[in-house]
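Worked Example 4.2. Consider the chain below.
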Amino acid sequence: MSAEVKRKEPFIRMVKRDSMPLWKSVLIRIAAILISLVVCAFFIYLITHSNPVQVYRSMVDGAVGTGRRTWNTLRDTMILLATALAITPAFKMRFWNIGAEGQILVGGIVTAAVLRYCGESMPTAVLFLTMVAASLAAGMVWGLIPAIFKAKWNTNETLFTLMMNYIAIQLTSFFSIVWEAKKGSGTIGTINQKTQAGWISTKFLPDIFGNFNYSINVIIVIALTIGMFVYLKYTKQGYEISVVGQSENTARYAGINVKKVIMRTMAISGAICGFTGFLLVSGSSHTISTSTAGGRGFTAIIVSWLAKFNPFVMILISFFLVFMGNGATQIASEFQLNESASEVITGIILFFILGSEFFVNYKLVFGGHAKEGK
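Applying the procedure from the previous section yields the following structure tokens:
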């Protein structure tokens, strides 16, 4: 004899989605951005009593209103994109590399050292090769250290890479004092300002791209994006990264050397971060300081995660975040807001973008009673 039992369900349940069509996920993210802009409009009106539409126009002007601003936005986009590409192999492997900031800084330190000591004595081609090799090596070493400890002794990579950021910051502070431009200033100043030796040209192909361009940086990072896509999707190493990320036990069963994959992947991740430090020092700031990385190592985590590790999607997300950041800085200046106000606006937008991922991956089910047969 069977009895029918009624089991009371919670009024609202959270259920993981099996899948969602691409167009629906895109619509959810667009809706999140639009809602965030409405919330920002209320915030703007409350603190400025200005027309939010005018404020948003100012935001667009601040990001792409002039040739210089457009190229600055593209420059910052490429640096953020390069950092996101760097950490993506590690994150896809489920190795939580929170140390991109430090890896960028050590790459920047060695680039600055080569610029200072060899900038005017080496031929240009040799100088650039030396800077690139040094930045790659420095970032690689900085990435390998936590990877070796993880592979050998299963240490916590999140804490390890995070702590190494602080070591890199202190190293940068040390060299800022050793190389300071004026005694007691604690700053290096612009390196090779008169000769511009070792600087990546910012006027490459001016007839095509205009005078205020960072087109070499753009070309390099786009090439890196294509290379990373091919590496992750079509190579044996990319496959091994994916398998290790899904399950280390499965990877071992398939004959994959997990320890080797961890160390190799973090070596690549750190090397690209170090190379990003080279792009920052040689191709942008022409100096090194504790703020050179500028928090990009943490923002890049958002970029990589939102893009689902797709390098081409990272281009759009990186551009959007930089666009909003530069635009928010402009409205802070134009409407007499402090820097914190612009960060609040950017934070609101990021909150909604990240929140939209919940609705992409989960759905809310309004329950009642469910019947169980017995």
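The chain has two domains: 1-50+335-374, 73-318. The two ends are 9 Å apart (CA to CA). Compare this with Example 4.1 before moving on.
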